[in-house]
């Protein structure tokens, strides 16, 4: 049996054991609160809410069903979300109007400020998840751990390079097995560094007059499905792969309430989400993202990291990071509190320590 097949079997085994159930989460975090919403109810309510907010631009029932299918484990009938935590600030009046995780956790700023480019692979889930794992482990250790965790490992053990992303496999692998260190392509750092260099992602969608070829085009690179590593691929790295792993205590989805999302970020660190991607995403926006007339739909999920929030010219925004090196510093802003392009629909993250046991 191939390494990828073994990992998929491992993940499915843990799914059948109910690793995403409210009961399992409450065993680890008895003081947190969770709610379960049926997939059918979620889709119906989301379409209604987007219509009321004027944000149902191109969002259909079929799109929501596909987004949920990619996010949840096979056969899941409910979406479990974290809705309460005693460490959260309960008084909105005491909550900051702006927040930047890079400023709040200065010792971890070099990690929080970075998301690795995914190269030519068709999934950026692993790049964002690896980045969030790195951020949150640094925060958990009070800034004493500053290494990047391995996108390459998640690509081989929790995903495939040649197919559309299914984020739940990578989160389960990070929780049940753990992820070793792994620097960026060519860095020579960590246990399992990333295979691919950054590339120009606009080449995937390029038409006449669309995009700027400032980097090597992704379509010029050979893509293949990677094996799940059984040892460090960096021969100069001194620690064994198994001793190098960092394992999440749990992974979970967040409430769609933007106050709860801000609480989670300010308490524990950045979170992962995705947006419906249109051609106006191919170039870094100037200011806060706004819907452009006649924009063209490209893909269902563009995965990004949220590191903070703020307000500009009366518009509330999320402070986000893209994975594309062609964007420069990768930081950009998206409207907050209106579920812009489904940014607040299925946010996910994980924790490294069971603080309540």
From TrEMBL:
Q: Example GO biological process term?
A: proteolysis
Q: What is this protein called?
A: Peptidase C1A papain C-terminal domain-containing protein
- Signal peptide position in this chain? 1-18
Which of UniProt's keywords are assigned here?
Answer: Signal
Per UniProt, residues of the Peptidase C1A papain C-terminal domain are 95-351
Q: Which GO terms describe its molecular function?
A: cysteine-type peptidase activity
Q: Which organism is it from?
A: Bemisia tabaci (Sweetpotato whitefly)
Highest taxon of the source? Answer: Eukaryota
């Amino acid at each position: 049996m191939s390494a990828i097949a073994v990992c998929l079997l491992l993940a499915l085994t843990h799914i059948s054991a109910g690793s995403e159930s409210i009961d399992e989460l409450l065993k680890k975090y008895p003081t947190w609160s969770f709610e379960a919403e049926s997939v059918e109810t979620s889709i119906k309510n989301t379409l209604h809410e987007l219509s009321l907010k004027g944000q149902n631009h191109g969002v259909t029932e079929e799109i929501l069903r596909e987004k949920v299918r990619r996010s949840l484990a096979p056969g899941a009938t409910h979406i479990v979300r974290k809705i309460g935590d005693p460490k959260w600030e309960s008084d909105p009046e005491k909550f900051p109007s702006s927040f930047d995780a890079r400023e709040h956790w200065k010792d971890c700023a070099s990690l929080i400020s970075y998301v690795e480019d995914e190269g030519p692979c068709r999934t950026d889930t692993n790049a964002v998840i690896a980045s969030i794992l790195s951020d949150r482990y640094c925060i958990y250790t009070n800034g004493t751990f500053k290494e990047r965790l391995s996108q390459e490992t998640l690509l081989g053990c929790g995903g495939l390079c040649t197919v559309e992303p299914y984020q739940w496999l990578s989160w389960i692998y990070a929780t049940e097995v753990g992820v070793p260190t792994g620097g960026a392509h060519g860095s020579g750092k960590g246990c399992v560094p990333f295979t691919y260099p950054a590339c120009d992602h606009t080449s995937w969608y390029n038409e006449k007059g669309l995009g700027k070829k400032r980097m090597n085009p992704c379509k010029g690179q050979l893509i293949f499905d990677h094996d799940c590593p059984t040892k460090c691929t960096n021969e100069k790295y001194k620690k064994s792969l198994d001793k190098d792993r960092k394992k999440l205590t749990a992974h979970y989805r967040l409430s769609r309430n933007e106050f709860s999302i801000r609480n989670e970020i300010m308490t524990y660190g950045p979170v992962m989400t995705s947006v419906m991607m249109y051609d106006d995403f191919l170039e870094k926006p100037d200011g806060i993202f706004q819907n452009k007339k006649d924009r063209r739909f490209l893909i269902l999920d563009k995965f990004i990291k949220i590191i903070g929030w703020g307000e500009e010219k009366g518009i509330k925004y999320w402070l986000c990071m893209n994975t594309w090196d062609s964007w420069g510093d990768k930081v950009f802003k998206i409207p907050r509190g209106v579920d812009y392009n489904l940014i607040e629909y299925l946010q996910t993250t994980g924790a490294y320590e069971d603080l309540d046991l």
